[in-house]
Amino acid sequence: MGRYVVRRVIQAIPVILGATFLIYALVFLLPGDPIQALAGEKRADPTVVAMLHDRYHLDDPFFVQYWHYLIGLFQGDFGEDYRGHAVVDVMTRAFPYTINLALMALGVEMVIGVVAGVVAALRRGRFIDNLVLISTLMVISIPTFVIGFVLQLLLGVKLNTDYGIDFFPVSFNEDAGFRAYLLPAYVLASTSLAYIARLTRTSLIEVMRADYVRTAVAKGLSPLRVVVRHGLRNALIPIVTFLGMDLGSLMGGAVITEGIFNIPGIGHQLFQSVYLRERTIVVGVVSALVLVYLFTNLVVDLLYAVLDPRIRYE
Amino acid sequence: MRLTKTMRLTATAACAALAISACSTGGDGKKASDQASGGSGKTGGSISIESGEPQNGLVPQNTAESEGSQVEYALFAGLVDYDPKTSAPRLSVAESIETPDSKVWTIKLKDGYTFHNGEKVTAQSFVDAWNWGADQTNAAQALPFFDKIEGSEELAPGKDKTPTAKQLKGLKVVDDKTFTVTLKDPFSQFKTMLGYNAFYPLPKAFFNDPKAFGDNPIGNGPFQMDGPWQHNSQIKVKRYDKFPGKKAKLDSVTFKIYDKLETSYNDLRADNIQITNKLPISAMSTVSQEFGDRYIYKPESGVGYIGFPIATNPAFAKPELRKAISMAIDREAITKTIFSGTRKPADDFISPIIPGYRQGALGEAAKYNPAKAKELYAQSGGLPGNKLEIGYNADGGHKEWIEAVGNQLKNNLGLDVTFKPFEKFGKILDALGKKEYSGAFRMAWQMDYPSIEDYLRPIFSKIAIENGSNYGGYVNEDFESLLAKADSAKTEEEGLKLYQQADDVLIKDLPYIPVYTYMTSGAYTKGVKNVVIDSQNRIDLAGVELA
Q: Whole-structure pTM over 0.80, yes or no?
């Protein structure tokens, strides 16, 4: 097991390098001068532009610029953006918000999604099953930003102005604590939540037909024990895979949700940085997201072994 | 949404509880006003207002965008500021600003101004700040603002050259309270320039660590920082009690940083922020019903044009042709239907909020008259092949109105109009600068300081071809000599008249066609009053009070 983990970690190095290179190249190819972006809709003064181009090696060819970046990276220096902020500072400031949001969304997905799926599976073909089917279909087919704005308007603004209930903050507000994440986490989780419900339902229905479940029922085990220990445990494998992959996309996909609810997280930062052509920040953030993907994948693979002892790595 | 009886009761109880606990933190505007007896305002209280993330550190000499200037407007006090109604300069930190010839200016400071760390504001504080801004090694955004001062070329010799001086020759400290500024050429509008944030003073602490200063600036204005800037989240300021000028009424203001205007508007409606000076387009149809007379709607400084590369494309050489195009554009329809009233038809090269603006100055040229336009177009000889290309930058929401203009020209003049989108504003500027693009183009101008001169020289003068925004390459010697005359005028009024004559030259020549002026649209909640937005789209926060 230990050797397996080490091998996986070493494998991650070329992936990271490749990712930074690709992203750097892509951002480099974006049209528009980042220094002009600093001056907004005005023409930046030519002397200022020249000075800043010089400072950030912007007139060098692509490979020279990338080389400068890589050298810095190996010295543990992620560089700074064109406004003089260290990329590391920018990331350590933004990531906690996104991690909170993503974990909360993951929690929402897991609890609501799995419960809805289990209920639908156990009451197959009945009213509740159809209800889950229809409501998940609806959630999947409505774009996230629509769900976001509607919930913000109804629960944030209307509930406050019309009924004086100030429970859901309209936009992110540090003082509101976990409440500030409730709506955005639900919005962020909504699509995946629907998939999880569907996935759980299908997977559990299949497992419940298996011989060992029949055996467990025949042994006289309580229905709860049968469903949770023998059914769900085996049905969870595809769901864990999905959840693991999803954590990465939740963090990356927070661009829209963080925008709507004004959370100063990584999605927010990424959007701004792409717009302002802040290469170093885009590359840093996306590489960090790649790391998250790699790490969650590893955790998922290890979790298999816990869920199903027949799967072991060596 | 339906509520049961008990839910209603709970809601009311919650409401009352909120009202009681209100007057403590930010976001209490509405609740505070519930208890106020109306009538006169009161000192104290906290509000939040909408902001975006400032682009650079909060160093006045390195700020060229509106978000940062709004915060700096609260933190700093300049030599002059501007009357929010007329935009005329008023003395602020300066006791007097005098000149015999518009070339050498003597500036005397008032007593009692201090930086928020206690350091006295002296003549040296201004001189040091300006020297820093004028030095190209600091690459400050405001660099070009100092090029009127004698010796600026030694500090900013240009690309690949090293400055040969550290101080502007034209700045001389006479004593603690007095300094003189010598300009290269007379400039009657210099006093008006001095309210711009590039000319704010800086304390000694700045020069030790400009970067740290940018996150936690020390100003000399009515408000001081209340903790460092929390990036992408908020900037908090509180009243500076030792401010000798017009003291702030509020205890503190939070600049809440938003990414989307829809979100900030929702927060305004829920009374989580109290003032915004930017509304989303989606709010335009309902905001006046919702906010009544707390909805602010007035012209701001920006002007939108259709420009022509006169110097590179001889097809555009004739003024009659440009006038014909101008008259074939239905400005009223464009501002109403495309911009939902967020713009107004332009009728002068000068923005309506600037001293010297004359209503209807453009005359016939700005009046929609397709028949006359067609006639004029034929007289002028027309465009080769009746073809017209209009370029615009695709990143600024210009597609719709440019296409509308194109369609109007198609219908009214029978032109074959094509469009050329550029990905970014910078790209269109590059293409024009390198003479790679020779079609008509969309352009806009936002002033730096509220002077009529700022609508003329930076866009249409000869020197602006190299160093400014004269992308059309327009040259007219009459215009140049009138500008020079106006610059050396002895009084503001005399200068104004001469600048208006220069404006008349433009109106005759139409190097660009002014299409619309931008409008400020903002709103505030019941909890605040005295909300005034000035010509630079800044809220005068020192004057705001709880209602």
A: yes
